[in-house]
Amino acid sequence: MRTRKQLTPLGAVGAGLVAGAVGTVCMDTVRFLRQRRAGGEHNALHWEFAPVRSWQEAPDPGQVGRRLAEAFTRRELPDSAAFPVSTVMHWAYGAGNAVSYGVVSASLRKPRVLYGLPYGALVWLSGYVVLPIAGLYEPIWRYDAKTLGDDLTAHLAYGLGTSSAFWLLSRAAVFSRQL
Questions:
Q1: Cβ atoms within 10 Å, residue 80
Q2: With b meaning 16 or more CB within 10 Å and e meaning fewer, what string describes 146-156?
Q3: Single pTM value for the model
Q4: What is the domain count for the chain?
Q5: How far is 42 from 75, CA to CA, in rounded Å?
Q6: What confidence tier does 87 reach under pLDDT thresholds 50, 70, 90?
Q7: Is 145 exposed, middle or buried (0-12, 13-18, 19+ CB in 10 A)?
Q8: What is the per-residue DSSP string for the chain?
Q9: Transmembrane stretches, by residue range (predicted)?
């Protein structure tokens, strides 16, 4: 009789974190290649870790991190914190968000890589719900189709990267147990 591997709960969380980091790399690769096609000259490492000198330059993940840190500490963060907070929040959001994907996917009888497409679309849509409430985005209907399409396809790459990595990791002995 053949046995199948099943993820432990902690294994699902760990595999989700790692898979989310892989998904973040996939999303960033799509965005990096777009900026190169548009004439951008930065190499991948410089583009990924471009310095953020002030909070006015900080991307949305950094703005969310700033608000969380300032609400928690009740202190204003200096501009020198914009780069590290933005970088950490970007990667933490991509990896941490996939924990839920890992837990849900591990509970399915037969997880499939293509489940990453609706997952990526859901992550994309959630940004257009939460970020306007936070005052960081406009409501979704104020964006043109190209902007929304570019953002959606990057999130679909994130979803597929996450689901592919999770599928592979769920078969690794370190994250699972035999049934």
A1: 11
A2: eeeeebbbbbb
A3: 0.89
A4: 1
A5: 35
A6: very high
A7: exposed
A8: ----EEE-HHHHHHHHHHHHHHHHHHHHHHHHHHHHHTT----HHHHHT----STTT--HHHHHHHHHHHHHH-SPPPGGGHHHHHHHHHHHHHHHHHHHHHHHHHHSSS--GGGHHHHHHHHHHHHHHHHHHTTSS--GGGS-HHHHHHHHHHHHHHHHHHHHHHHHHTTSGGGEEE-
A9: 116-136, 156-174
How many Å apart are CA 99 and CA 94, to the nearest integer?
9
Q: What is the pLDDT of residues 35-54, one digit of tens each?
A: 999 998 888 888 888 889 99
Written as six digits, the tokens of 136 are 């960081």
Domain encompassing residue 31: 5-178
Contacts by 49-58, CB closer than 8 A, 24 or more apart:
49/87, 51/83, 52/82, 52/83, 52/86, 52/87, 53/79, 53/82, 53/83, 54/79, 54/82, 55/79, 55/82, 57/82, 58/82, 58/85, 58/86
